[in-house]
Amino acid sequence: MARKLRYQPLPKDRTWWRVAEVHWKDPLSPAFSRESGGRWNPPGAFATLYLNADRQTARCNVRTFIERRPYEPEDLRDEAAPILVGCQLPREQVVCDVHTKAGLLAAGLPTTYPLDARGFVVDHSTCQDIGEQVKFERKRGVHTRCAKSSNPDDLELAWFPASTRSVAREVARHPFSDWFWDR
């Protein structure tokens, strides 16, 4: 049974942030996620560009990635550390709201998302089902709480480009030492 999802337009001229490896040829390409899948798109289904709403959320995602590594953020040098790429999306993008209480309930998710009622992170398959419905309804993605954060103000966007001609436009690029540390 399809959910009656809640949709909202994205703010115009908003800068979104992509954490990327310094060596990536095109850090704003959604092609990799089409193959590998992600929280909101199953492997092989459709291209998705995963973006952070702000630097705080980007930092949270990097800290989560690093916590299983034998080093700390202080150990990273700009030549090998993640960069932060700012981008703007095409105008008039309508996305699924999975960050407000009303949006979470409409999507069939608990208001405690990213955690379920037992305190576990909601699994990818549940989110991918929602993502597939959003894509089927020809909307441009999922505006959601960050699954790696307990702060409901840490937001992300899983952006589903309308076609291969629909691209994120780079507006900024920052080395790790410029963006990761609070200054």
User: Mean pLDDT, nearest integer?
Assistant: 93
Structural class: alpha+beta
* Lateral strand order in the biggest sheet: 1-5-6-7-3
Poorly predicted runs: none
What share of the residues lie within helices?
10-25%
Q: Which sheet architecture does the biggest sheet show? A: 5 strands, mixed
How many angstroms separate the termini?
A: 48 Å
By DSSP (H or I, 4+ residues per run), the number of helices equals: 5
Which descriptors apply to this entry?
alpha+beta; 183 residues; three-stranded antiparallel sheet
Question: Mind explaining what this structure looks like?
Answer:
With 183 residues, the chain is α+β, with helices and mostly antiparallel strands. The protein has one domain (7-176). Helices cover 22% and strands 21% of the residues. It contains five helices and eight strands; from the N terminus they run E-E-H-E-H-E-E-H-H-E-E-E-H. The strands form two sheets. It has a five-stranded mixed sheet. The longest helix is centred in the C-terminal third of the chain and has 13 residues, at 124-136. 34% of the residues are buried. The mean pLDDT is 93.
